[in-house]
Amino acid sequence: MAEATLKIFRGTAERSEYQTFSVPTYQGMVVLDAVHDIQAGQAPDLAVRWNCKAGKCGSCGAEVNGNPRLLCMTRMDQYPAGQPIVVEPMRRFPLIRDLVCDVSWNYEVNKRIKPLAPKPREADGTYRMQQYDIDRVQEFHKCIECFLCQDVCHVMRDHGKYDFAGPRFMVRLAALAMHPLDTVDRLRDLRDAQGIGYCNITKCCTEVCPESISITDNAIIPLKERVAGEFYDPLAWIWRALRGKKADTRNPVH
Amino acid sequence: MPTSVTHDILIIGGGGAGLRAAIAAAEHSAKLSIGIVSKVYPMRSHTVSAEGGAAGVMRDNDSLDQHAKDTIFGADFLADQDAVEILVNEAPGELIQIEHWGCPWSRDPDGRISVRSFGGMSVDRTVYAADKTGFHMLHTLFQTSLKYESIHRYDECFVTSILADDGKARGVTFINMYSGQVQLITAKAVIICTGGCGRIFPFTTNASIKSGDGMALAYRSGVPLKDMEFVQYHPTGMPGTGILITEASRGEGGWLVNKDGYRYLQDYGLGPPTDTPVHRKMELGPRDILSRCHMQEFQKGRTFEGPYGHYVHLDLRHIGEAVIDSKLPFVRELSRNYLGIDPVYEPIPVRPVVHYMMGGIHTDADGKTPMDGLFAAGETACVSVNGANRLGSNSLTELLVFGARAGRAAAQYAEQEPAGPSQPLDALAGDEQRRLEQQYFRKEGGKVRISEIRDAMQHAMEEGVGVYRNEEDLLKTCQTLRDLRHRFSDIRIEDKTDIFNTERTTVLELDYMLDLAEAIANSALQRKESRGSHTRTDYPDRDDENFLKHTMVLRTPEGPKIEYAPVTITRWQPEERKY
Ligand SMILES: Cc1cc2nc3c(=O)[nH]c(=O)nc-3n(C[C@H](O)[C@H](O)[C@H](O)COP(=O)(O)OP(=O)(O)OC[C@H]3O[C@@H](n4cnc5c(N)ncnc54)[C@H](O)[C@@H]3O)c2cc1C
Ligand code: SF4
Ligand code: SF4
Ligand code: FES
């Protein structure tokens, strides 16, 4: 039977080390299976979050060979045989223990976003909407809050700028901004409280998103254009001139 | 001494039911302070997994009576008909309310909310948001709950007991996962919204947290569990992982075929086969019947054999790539990821897997349990609207309707209750802390592995309480479970640390599940008839004379004790359930 070697980060903020484990591999095995195998025998005290094992609940975010991934959706066979697979917690958040980190900061950020305030209902008490309106927000609603994009974004990861709400919340703000029922203006907040200006469109967030949300193209850029349109700041003028586009923000880029 | 906080209402569980209850209580009165304790972040709750949709009457070609009738018929007449009427009456309002909060329901070309067909429903009445309905609902409820300053969350906190004072529920103790500390919250009312317990079985669509904790907590508090023998098998789970292929795949026209490529359901009275789906026929028959057909095909040797046992094929190829991508994108994604199969070109292997608990904590239509101050809603509760067999897409509706009702009822109750318990609960909480430390945290020298007991329990459940049941196997299973309960006291716990110790919660979950496994197996043993999902080969017929009644199981030191309670019949007299 084939075997794989995993090098797993163990410990707390005070004391940590990498431990190496060997596990038997089989077809279709994902990294979370390997972690479970280790928990079942070699290290029952290995801490990891998981739940659905189907890429839906967003619990199992970690870094595999340095890349933010969902452990339950990462096939073992994509890594070269014979080399250890390194599994670490998401680096950007405070460590709790082993592969578990404290993501509560994200929930604090979320609280600062003004919630949906819908327009009045139609006479029969319902709403009429078109499927294309729904499709547009459904892409953003797909977010499973795994926070892998928050982990990778260099604004916070390397520059420690926590007044930027981060890509996950740009997605949430875009969902609200493009929701056919919403009536709230959040542009000033986007500029000030959520610090959209910090994002310089590196697209790293889009690359790691397990839900394949076009975070940068469909959420951040249209939001930036709206903010620019609202406040006419000179940088935004240049930005728009470079992109050679009108600030038509109702339509996401396809 | 455990640290303590106080709220007016304390909700255990941040899934669909828990969040809906919290919002309802907060809307009832801004003065009430509400706590939600959840062992995972609310967004990780199992409601995210629901794919297909939520049922409610939305169109002129449908009627409340028709929805009620389908539900009662599907329940094989074991549902309480007054509760079903409440469900169907309040469903449309709840579905529109949640849209008002931002839930992106899929639309028809004229801008109205789309509806799709679902097993056992006689017209299209299942509202959906692509194939991530529960996910979108849970997100919407979560974001909405943030609007209320009176709602406080305790995420990643694992409840270990309900504290009672003078026979009334007055608070809970929980382990804070971050510190490992035992903490106490006192409250005037407690609502249990902890979801189902599919993890008692080896093959299930249920995520790892579905260990029925709340059911066990109520059971230990002396509250009866109702109709626990009714366990829903879903006919189309993936072999091995148990990952669900949504029923919507059949609603959109998918076929079930055996190893000869034959649509075998026509041999079991569900025909005739047609190219396009017909309500309540063939692949759109109810789940209990479809699961039994599968088992019979297996016995006839007409299923495939794979590494995880028998399976048949779910064929979507004739529906075409366009429909698969627009209506069932997640089915394609899951098949590709987990089976390496593209359903556009190949059929998907499927088998029956445990999916949903019809039974649960005994409540009335306001979520009240027989214990004062204790309420329950969602999959963990049994109102009962699902009777002996739940129709797909009724449970998302149930958690909205009865979550909201329980939230309001608990709020009213809390408003009338005097300020605090007659004595401080700290002493009780201290006892609980000592119990946990002695039995688990500081336990030395146990010999039995957690996985050993868990595997044995799951195996015993599959053997005795599977799709088909009989007295001999049930007796054996009941005995095995008793033995496992004894062996459990010798469990080995290796992780002695306090921070995020998942071995501790795993062992506490196993403790809960052992209680529930016994409750299920004994309830099934005593029900000597076949009804809905409960099929006894030794009693193949429904027996209304002796068993048109709810099972009520109570916990005693000697094991489960079975009693019965009447079923409420209003306008629909029991008749033979034929499709
Ligand atoms: C794969 C799948 C697909 C489904 N599809 C559909 C569908 O299409 N339509 C439909 O109507 N139904 C569907 N169902 C059923 C439906 O999803 C569930 O019945 C429903 O979501 C249950 O919601 P809930 O709020 O009761 O519980 P859950 O969402 O399971 O939430 C339980 C909560 O309780 C908390 N909790 C549990 N134990 C503890 C403890 N000890 N301490 C603290 N907190 C605790 C958890 O953290 C969680 O927040 C599906 C189910 C599955 C498995
Ligand atoms: S595109 Fe913006 S948000 Fe995304 S990673 Fe780069 S800087 Fe961060
Ligand atoms: S946007 Fe994508 S990467 Fe970011 S939290 Fe959501 S699902 Fe995860
Ligand atoms: S376990 Fe749910 S996303 Fe990985």
What does this protein structure show overall?
- The complex is a heterodimer of chains A (254) and B (579).
- Chain A is an alpha+beta fold and 254 residues long.
- Chain A has helices at residues 31-40, 104-111, 131-141, 148-152, 154-157, 167-177, 187-191, 204-208, 215-231, 234-243, and strands at 3-11, 16-24, 61-64, 67-70, 85-88, 95-97, 100-101.
- Chain A folds into two domains: 3-101, Roll (Ubiquitin-like (UB roll)), CATH 3.10.20.30; 104-243, Fumarate Reductase Iron-sulfur Protein, Chain B, domain 2 (Orthogonal Bundle), CATH 1.10.1060.
- Chain A is built from ten helices and seven strands.
- In chain A, the strands form two sheets. Chain A has a five-stranded mixed beta sheet.
- The longest helix of chain A is centred in the C-terminal third of the chain and has 17 residues, at 215-231.
- Chain B is an alpha/beta fold and 579 residues long.
- Chain B folds into three domains: 3-48 and 133-232 and 356-424, FAD/NAD(P)-binding domain (3-Layer(bba) Sandwich); 235-353, Succinate dehydrogenase/fumarate reductase flavoprotein, catalytic domain (Flavocytochrome C3, Chain A, domain 1), CATH 3.90.700.10; 427-548, Methane Monooxygenase Hydroxylase, Chain G, domain 1 (Up-down Bundle), CATH 1.20.58.100.
- Chain B has helices at residues 16-28, 64-74, 81-100, 133-145, 213-220, 248-251, 287-299, 321-327, 329-339, 394-416, 426-441, 450-464, 471-488, 502-526, 544-547, and strands at 3-6, 9-12, 34-38, 54-55, 115-116, 126-127, 151-155, 157-165, 168-176, 182-186, 189-192, 225-226, 231-237, 255-257, 304-306, 309-315, 348-357, 360-362, 374-376, 381-382, 468-469, 535-536, 549-556, 559-566.
- In chain B, the strands form six sheets. Chain B has a five-stranded parallel beta sheet with strand order 7-3-2-11-19, sandwiched between helices. A five-stranded mixed beta sheet of chain B has the order 20-18-12-23-24.
- At the A-B interface, helix 2 and helix 3 of A face helix 3, helix 4 and helix 9 of B.
- Bound molecules: flavin-adenine dinucleotide, iron/sulfur cluster (SF4) (2 copies) and FE2/S2 (inorganic) cluster.
- One iron/sulfur cluster (SF4) binds next to helix 8 and helix 9 of chain A.
